[in-house]
Amino acid sequence: MRKLLAINILISLLVAVSSCKNEEDQINGMCINNDIFTHTTNDIIAYSKVFIDKNNRFSIELPKDWMYAENIIDSVKGVVASDTTINFHQNGIVNVCEYKTHFTSLREYFAAEIENLDTDNHFNIIQIGKARINGLESFWTLYEEVKDTTSNMIENHKSLIYYVQRNKSDTFYLLETTVYDIENYQEKLRELRPILETFKIRVEPNKN
Q1: CB–CB of 143/124 below 8 Å?
Q2: pTM for this one?
Q3: How far apart (Å, rounded) are the C-alpha atoms in residues 92 and 162?
Q4: Which PROSITE patterns has this protein been placed in (predicted)?
Q5: Facing residues of 164 across strands?
Q6: How far apart are CA 119 and CA 123, in angstroms?
Q7: How far apart are CA 18 and CA 27, in angstroms?
Q8: Is 126 helix (H, G, I), strand (E, B) or coil?
Q9: What domains can be seen in the chain, in order of their start residue?
């Protein structure tokens, strides 16, 4: 099964490279790929609870037995959740953050984020692409964060982040899944993806 998954991902990468010739198909010199993490089951959210942030801005369904904490700092609002019943190395983390920026274009904001990641030696961008999260347009990036002697990070990990814009405003959501099982990261990220598919932007009267 894993060999077949690896072959399918390799084929998708080869197709992407061959079709990535125009500037609109690239961001910062990297090809924009299709979403390779869509083929999942919904087992992880079969028994879930709906989390709604305190400002009623967004909601997401989280497994009932997961622990979560809401971040209510003015500059960064969101929630981080994980399954604390299993070994840390097998654990997955889901993080939703809301950012208010000076950008009003999803593509421009994503390009700026990719440029920042690409210039930081702690990050290795593996792939970028476009997708839809619960019907919402998004860009995504898969990257590895590498531990060094000056970092407080526990160990290397891989993260998949989807960037979603709030109603063509200057507010964006980062929907992130992080795994520490590097060898099986693709399988684990696919398992976590259905959680992100439950993300919804909530409507506030007379507001974006």
Answers
A1: yes
A2: 0.83
A3: 16
A4: PROKAR_LIPOPROTEIN
A5: 138, 173
A6: 8
A7: 16
A8: strand
A9: 2-201 (3.40.1000.10)
